[in-house]
């Protein structure tokens, strides 16, 4: 396959690590924090109620769909207000949340494959989430991180892909975007003029009616092997 690739853009959640365990860990950590620092809030909003409040907050603020950090802060503000707790607790509660959010467990293959790819190509992290590569300890493997919050729009908006390409200094057809989500990652990248690689760890069926991924692997190691075999250094 003739595919000139000069740079990589890479999704994070569910590509380098599974997000579901992180979400569960966040809920547990925040609940413990509230029980210590604001028992009234913890009583009013046990984990299921806090999850429902978060969902209502997200539905009420579609204009912030690209800014999960802002939505989390608004959720905390609403919980503290409803339980009569001081809003000064929002920042330390957010910090507890954010530390938990950046406690990740990589897929078994991911870190080694990421290191192999980073040794050959500049990689930009391109994410709708709010993971912090520095806090996680892998920022040295990336040229930069571009989040939906910083950019002002989330994948699959073409503008976020184009902004990453511009910062990399590489035209879109020579950038390979790698991610797990059919629409947000692969189709979004392809519509923006990039190449799209689907990392399908769960054995899902490709269901996009009009597009096919340029590359498709069940691990990041599969991509690293393919790049070693098919793309000149």
Output the CATH topology of the largest domain.
Rossmann fold
- Shape estimate: elongated
Number of domains: 2
Provide a count of the helices: 11
**CATH 4th-level superfamily of the largest domain:** HAD superfamily/HAD-like
The low-confidence runs, each spanning 5 or more residues with pLDDT under 50, are none
Helix content: 40-55%
Radius of gyration: 19 Å
Secondary-structure element sequence?
EHHHHHHEHEHHEHEEH
Q: What is the annotated CATH architecture of the largest domain?
A: 3-Layer(aba) Sandwich
Largest sheet: 6 strands, parallel
> How much strand?
5-15%
Kindly report the average pLDDT value: 96
Oligomeric status = single chain
Q: Which strand order does the major sheet show?
A: 3-2-1-4-5-6
State the end-to-end CA separation.
16 Å
Please identify the structural class as seen in this structure.
alpha/beta
Give the C-level CATH assignment of the largest domain: Alpha Beta
Total beta strands: 6
Protein described:
- This protein is α/β, with parallel strands linked by helices and 233 residues long.
- It has two domains: 7-17 and 105-230, 3-Layer(aba) Sandwich (Rossmann fold), CATH 3.40.50; 20-101, Four Helix Bundle (Hemerythrin (Met), subunit A).
- Helix content is 49%, strand content 11%.
- The protein has a six-stranded parallel sheet with strand order 3-2-1-4-5-6, sandwiched between helices.
- Helix 1 (20-37) packs antiparallel against helix 5 (90-101) and helix 6 (110-118) packs parallel to helix 11.
- The mean pLDDT is 96.
- This is HAD family hydrolase.
- Pfam families: Hydrolase.
- InterPro entries: HAD-like_sf (IPR036412), HAD-SF_hydro_IA (IPR006439), HAD_sf (IPR023214), S-2-haloacid_dehalogenase (IPR051540).
- Keywords: Hydrolase.
